[in-house]
Amino acid sequence: MNLAIGDIRDEASKFSKEDKVNYDPNKEDIVTSADKRAQARYVGNLRTHFPHFGIIGEEEDLNIPCIDRENPIYFTVDPLDGTKAFARYQSYGVGTMLALANGNDVWAAYVGDVNTGDIYGYSDEGPVTRTRFGVESEIKVDTAVPLGKLYALFDLPVHRFPKVLQKMGLSVEEGGVFKEASVAGGSIGMLFSRLWIGEVGVLFMKPGFDTPWDSTPIFGINKKLGFKHFKMNPETEEVEVFEPILPKKVSKKGYIEFVAHESKVEEIISFIKSNKA
Q1: CATH architecture for residues 147-275
Q2: What is d(CA 171, CA 206) in angstroms, rounded to the nearest whole number?
C-alpha cells in the first residue's frame, strides 16, 4: 500500500484522465493514469506472491478467479478511492483500499490516505491499527463518548435525507443527538476513517451501489471494531440493523445506509422510532 500511495503521488502532477462508464448511467465517471498505475502495482505484487488467489479490481473489470479448490480466497483492490477528488487536486478525500477475503470472512483489510500517508487496517487475528507518521497504534473505540460530543457525517446535503434523519443530525440544543452535522464526499474509505478514530458518531450514506473493492475492506474493519450497519427504507423510514454480505460484483443498493458503533444502536433506534413523521 505504501508503494501504491507513492505511485499515486508521483502521478499527481502529470496524470491523464479519460471518461469511463459509471454504474449509474445518469452519472459521469473518470479513470486516471494514477488509478491504472496503482492497480498494476497491486496486481503485480499479488500475482507474484499469491498466484492461486483471485483478485477483483475496480479498473478494467478486473476479475481473476481463485484456483484454490478448497477455499474461495480473493483480494479486492480499489487502487484510487476518490478519483474525482484526486482529479480536482483535493488535499483530502483521496484513498486506496485493499482487502483479502475467504467467502464472507475478511481476513485482512487496509485503507490508506493518499494525502497524509495514514494507513488503517488489520491482518489475521491482530487488532485494527492506524499507522500515522510511521508509528502504528491500535484503534480503540471509546464507547463512553456520547453522540452529543460527536459529529453526524452525511455524504449528501442533509436536506436530501428523510426528515427524521435531518432532525437526528441536529445538535442536542436543537433537538437532535449530535454536536453538529457535517457533509463530505470523495473517498468512502476516508469518510469511514473519521468514524473509526472517533471524530464522527454516525455516517449516513445515500442509496447507491455496493462494490467489492469498496465494501470488503470497510465491512471487515467495521466488524472488527464493533460497528453496526443500519438500512432505512427511504419511503417508509422503517429501519433495521443488518449484517452485510460481501458483494462479489456491483449491485444496486436501494436503501439509505448508516453506520454507528454497537454501543449506540439502542439510542439511535429509539430516536428514530420516537421522531418518525
Answers
A1: 3-Layer(aba) Sandwich (3.40)
A2: 21
